[in-house]
Amino acid sequence: MRATFHLGVLVLLGVMTLGGLGAKIGWEAVRAESSIPDVGAAPKAAAAGGGPAPSGPARPAGGPAIESTRAQVLPAPALAPAKRPPRRWVQNFRPSELFAGPERGAARLGAVGQFTTYELVEGGDGAAAGTGSGRVKLFDPGLGVGRLPGYVWADPKDFGPSGPPQPLFELTDGGGPDPTTGRPAPERVGGWPRVPTAELAVVLDGDSGAILYGKNAHGQVAPASLTKILTAIVAIEHGKPQDKVRIDIDSRTMWDSTVMGLQPGDVISLETLLYGLMLPSGNDAALAIGRYISGSDDRFVELMNGRARTLGLEDTQIRNPHGLDEPGHYSSPYDLATMARHGMQDPLFYHLSATRNWHAEGFDLWNLNRLLGQYPGADGVKVGYTDDAGRCIVSSATRNGHRVFVSLIRSHDPVGESRMLLDYAFQNFRWP
Known about the structure:
Strand order of the largest sheet: 9-12-11-19-18-17
Radius of gyration: 24 Å
Oligomer: single chain
Shape: elongated
CATH topology of the largest domain: Beta-lactamase
CATH superfamily of the largest domain: DD-peptidase/beta-lactamase superfamily
């Protein structure tokens, strides 16, 4: 990859030297380029892990039991509207002077070393409109430490097309409406947080849905049992908690899997299955729920993918309801936190997320999320582990009436890093 890039640079320099056309050729290529980071997903199966905790909030009231074993076969919802516009990334192939604006007299910000990556914001046609300087506007995402994100201007002849930086960091200024939801985002009053070990991470504001901090926030990777957040959302929307489900799953055959302990012939309420799905991360519960709601594993997966699209989740593709590694099964920290933000608006999902112990119908179920009871205001959401996803979590906490979500994938310490990033958000952002 690096050799290919260097060869391209030499060719581009040659074109510029001979004809002065390098900028035009480079920027036309940038306009045609679409680059959203893809961290990849690979097949391997493993199970979630964690420890028990004492009981949590009271269960929601339920109605009379309804004996029902007939699957509810439902069509997938309609597609969501417009996708995110692709970001255009460029990289300088020689040391470049940066400026504070497009005007000829704009202050110099100093020189930056070669192979520094920026997002192209405006320009690229060889001239900044009305300035005569020929500079283009770039966005510097920063490196997760040191200088904060901001806009700079530079000579386009120093730059050529590039992929996104790795890792790709994000840090919002906030204080204005989020472009996706239109709701006001909190204003940042501090700098960068400590960089987490997680390969992929996001801190999401629960009020506005805005990304407060990201590290490869849109990277597509195996989500492990965080998949079950969407499984629960779809089940709640299309089933009734008091429905009775006849089980055809034998958890005793599910080696290397977290299970709630289902056996063929059991008749269990959908509510208890949902607690078995979310607390001990039961893969047997995920299959039982999907077959009850849609009649088959494949049709439930179709329903999950349809719901992901209506939620605007562009980084998500589902292949199963439990999250074991499978080719083509992926999501991103941003999508998973967005799922959780949607789910937490439902009272039943909230209880599934925040409950530490559930005892009903002969099952004694304990939540694997160790953040509950350890962090002030923690109220969810889900933990997971597979070989490809590593240790991962979507955590949630509420303070002074504001909820923040943290999503981490491939983290060395998901609980500790959740605490660190939640503390960072509550201490470094001011809500309107």
